[in-house]
Structures are given as structure tokens and as C-alpha cells.
Fold Methylisocitrate lyase.
Amino acid sequence: MTGADELRALLHAGRVTHVPGVYDPVTAALAVQAGHPAAHLSGAAVSALALGRPDLGFVHATQIADRAATLVPALNGAPLLADADTGYGNPLHAVWTALAYRRAGVAGLHLEDQAQPKRCGHLAGKEVIDVRLAAAKVAALVTEVPQLAVVARTDAYGVNGLTDAIERCRVYAAAGADAVFPEGVDDLGELARLHDALPGVPIVVNRSEAGGDRPVIPDADLAEVGVRLVLHPVTALLAALRAASLVYRAIAGGGAGDIDRLPWSAFTALVGQDDALDLDRRYAPGRLPT
């Protein structure tokens, strides 16, 4: 079973799966150790960590794919869902993006219908492109890169309201999307309306802190209205940065003291130090005679 197959299986499992954001091999390994069956790579995280810039179009597909290629091996087979922004252009550009992601080992991507130049999906002033162009991007990916699961995101809710968001999700599902991602639709009643309009179509929702306080709905209720994936794109990153901030302040004050931190032995285990020191493991292919 491929990573895309595993991701599609989660989308049709009849239950909610929480998908955490990872941003390097170590956090990918931690997510797997915690038992997560899938992980997410956020464009905002890559923009911040690679460039020190906000999520305003500074990163491109190549940079997302490069980051994905470093962390996919640490996921130990768990599928990675990656942020593909708007596909970075027209349908041809979107296909190029998808091919780059596939080469990097990505299992699926989500593609949004914002206009360029884009704004962070949680900021005012964003616009959405013509639904036919957005659907053409989805159809191009489904046709040209079937090895990737495609999640079609719409930002129409914050621009034109629920009715347009539902209609766009309907069109994207008809174009072949494996799931729809109605950004900003957090109310259970509105999710139920979407589910009623698109029976059988898996729904992905977002719990990014960028969206402010969101209602915490029990998984059982979400599952009833068709939600299958709940994304937590930057939660771990924000927690790690908060912890690092406290440590740096403590060191500036004279030392880290008793601040809680991962033991060195746990860190070396995460990065495979013991295997690297074993020359047979380092240089010989696993499970093959030498």
C-alpha cells in the first residue's frame, strides 16, 4: 500500500484522525513515536524556519519539497500531507508542484483557491479565484499525478459565505478531489450542511492557532458530519518555540537549571546515533547478505 493509499484509507475510515504538523526529521520521529498514523507539513512552518518570513508567498514548491524529502524517511512509512498553497500558478504549475512533492515522498497535498498574490488564509482581504480555474487545477492533479491524494481547500467561506464554500466543494469533489477542506467552517451545524450537500465526500478541518479560538467539537460529533482529518499544522512548532524562548531567557539569567528538557540519550536515539556508530548498519543495506 502506498502512502497515498494509506492517506485515502484514513479519509474513508469512518472516524476522525488528528494529524499533527511536523517540520524536521526529529519532530517527524516524535510524531511517529506518539502513535500518529499521518503527519502534516505546513507552508507557514517552512517559511518561518527556512526563511524567517511570514506565510505570504515567500516559499515555493521546491522549498516545501526539499523540506519534505528530509523528514519523510523519519516518518517510517506514515503518510505526509503537505501544503501546496495555490499550486503556485496555473494547472500546469500545479502539476509540476505535485510531481516535485511526489519525488520527495509526499503522500498527499492540499490545494487552495485563493487568488495571487495570496494572503495567509486567516487574514482579512483575501480573494478567491474563479471556481472553474480552481477545479481545473484539481482535475489536472488527479489526472497527471494519481499517485498523490488531493485535498481541495476553499477559502470562500471567509469571502462569500457558506453557500459559495459548499458549491465550490461540490465542484472540486466532482473534479476528482479525494476530500474537501472548507477553511474557516468550524461550526458543527455548518459542517452538517456541507456534509448533507456532499454525502460521502470526506471533510478535512483545520485547528491552526492562526485562526484564533476555534470550537473544540468532540470527535464523535465531527465524524457524524463527515469530518475525517483534523489538522494541527503549527501546534508543535509553537510549543517548541515557547519552550526555546524560556530556555534562552533562563540561560541569559545564569543557566538552564532545572528547565524540563529531553534527555540527551533520547535525542541521540531519535537521530539514530547507535545505528550510525555500528559500521555494519551504517554501510550495509538492511536485511541483505554482505
Summary: The CA atoms of residues 135 and 172 lie 5 Å apart. DSSP finds 14 helices and eight strands in the chain. The mean pLDDT is 92.
